[in-house]
User: Which sequence fits this backbone?
DNA sequence: GATATCCGGAGGAACTTCTTCCGTTTAGGT
DNA sequence: ACCTAAACGGAAGAAGTTCCTCCGGATATC
């Protein structure tokens, strides 16, 4: 996943080892998000489809694994933010796009999770962290500047709402539904609850009743009730 | 906390026992919310300020405790919903008020949490559950009816957003700040992100920078940057 | 086809959590 | 003020998890 900037002199990993490493990283991100940073490492290994020994071989201990997950998250977040700002002329559009993209990374909630587990201020993490924060701040500044985002909505608001939206909902909800709900709820936040806004399009994602919700753990989620697109249900399409 | 409908023939609990029971219930709710339903019962007891034996004396096992927490949650939710609907003429106002009140109960996220741990369909829980759901649905219907809530915003949307907002944010955030942020983020959802809405008042709660956020685990949260009220910082004041 | 690199899973050590038991404390009536 | 049934707390053995290393076997790469 990460294009690891392999230091010179150290021979690169064998192909299978590299593959396992990135699978472990992805699995760790998901497991830590779902069950907290104290989750059993055996579950991480299992979900990555590798043996526990491989996890210990790639990442010496829980700390290193956490650090790697965070580093990965920061790098991707920064790239995502920069791309959004570069490609969307309107500040609000850039912000919206950034937020949806970050949800797909399933990454924003990792940083607060590890806050009392690892040191974010060391020389490896600090620069990436600063750069990432700056990239996000640029988007927010842009949205403030062209008046499309109220001044009292700040960095922390955006970041924390992303944390709330990124965390998988508790209970036996299938991951795919969870992802679609996250995007729908982001739409809800972005478009607001009140009606009568300038020609509001219907929000994306499944419009579910309590009944639907109850059945969602067994059956596949209902097709979008309010809109027609995304028949394949890839789960990555959404408004805007 | 609950006015337990003491069955006849069974002598009522002694005063200290009753107090401990409700403290345990509150502690259990918080601990399960923070660390999941698998959290050590010893921590529940510690937070309730009682010995572990007392927990086992009041609630035979983890299951019973979970059931009691859920029951408590449902009863309070229902009451809150009914009060909101009765006292607010406007549908949207009722909904908003209900949502803020539920956040204060710190209760909505418990139901999904226990979904695969206990049976919600038995004869004790089912009626309360149905009644509670109906009360909420009434509010939503009212808001739909007088056009203050878009039709495609459903029961599940409201419920799940409350779950997201009720769960304490991960990381070392003091509980009091967590509560204020939850209300602020609800305001964000309710009022939306876009500016220029009909004379929007500033949203409540701390308007924080990344810096503020970082320091929030050690220092007390900053006084509201955007508004002046709530100098005592009781944490229960918010917009609307 | 040789070999350095990597893999998986078993298994003992260490730790966490559960749950009961019993001597001590306290509420509430007289 | 005193008595007693009711309730309490914490210690401690049992049971269950999780950690982490070691080694025989598999596989990528030259």
Assistant:
């Amino acid at each position: 996943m990460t294009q690891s900037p392999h230091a010179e002199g150290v021979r690169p990993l064998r192909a299978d080892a590299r593959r396992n490493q990135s699978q472990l990283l992805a699995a760790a991100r998901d497991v830590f998000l779902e069950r907290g940073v104290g989750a059993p490492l055996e579950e991480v290994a299992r979900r990555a489809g590798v043996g526990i020994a491989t996890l210990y071989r790639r990442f010496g201990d829980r700390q290193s694994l956490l650090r790697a997950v965070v580093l990965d998250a920061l790098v991707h977040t920064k790239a995502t933010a920069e791309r959004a700002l570069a490609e969307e002329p309107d500040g609000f559009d850039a912000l919206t796009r950034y937020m949806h993209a970050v949800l797909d990374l399933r990454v924003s909630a990792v940083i607060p999770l590890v806050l009392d587990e690892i040191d974010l201020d060391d020389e490896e993490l600090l620069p990436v962290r600063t750069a990432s924060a700056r990239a996000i701040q640029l988007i927010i500044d842009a949205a403030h500047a062209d008046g499309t985002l109220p001044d009292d909505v700040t960095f922390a608001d955006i970041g924390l709402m992303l944390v709330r939206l990124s965390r998988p909902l508790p209970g036996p909800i299938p991951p795919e539904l969870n992802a679609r709900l996250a995007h729908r709820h982001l739409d809800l936040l972005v478009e607001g609850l009140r009606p009568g806004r300038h020609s509001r399009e219907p929000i994306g994602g499944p419009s579910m009743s309590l009944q639907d919700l109850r059945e969602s753990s067994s059956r596949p989620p209902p097709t979008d009730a309010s809109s027609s697109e995304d028949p394949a249900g890839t789960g990555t399409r959404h408004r805007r």
In short: The two ends of chain A are 27 Å apart (CA to CA). Chain A is about 55% helix and 0% strand. Residues 62-87 of chain A form the longest helix (26 residues). Residues 14-17, 40-42, 52-53, 56, 61-62 of chain A lie near DNA strand D (CB under 10 Å from a C1').
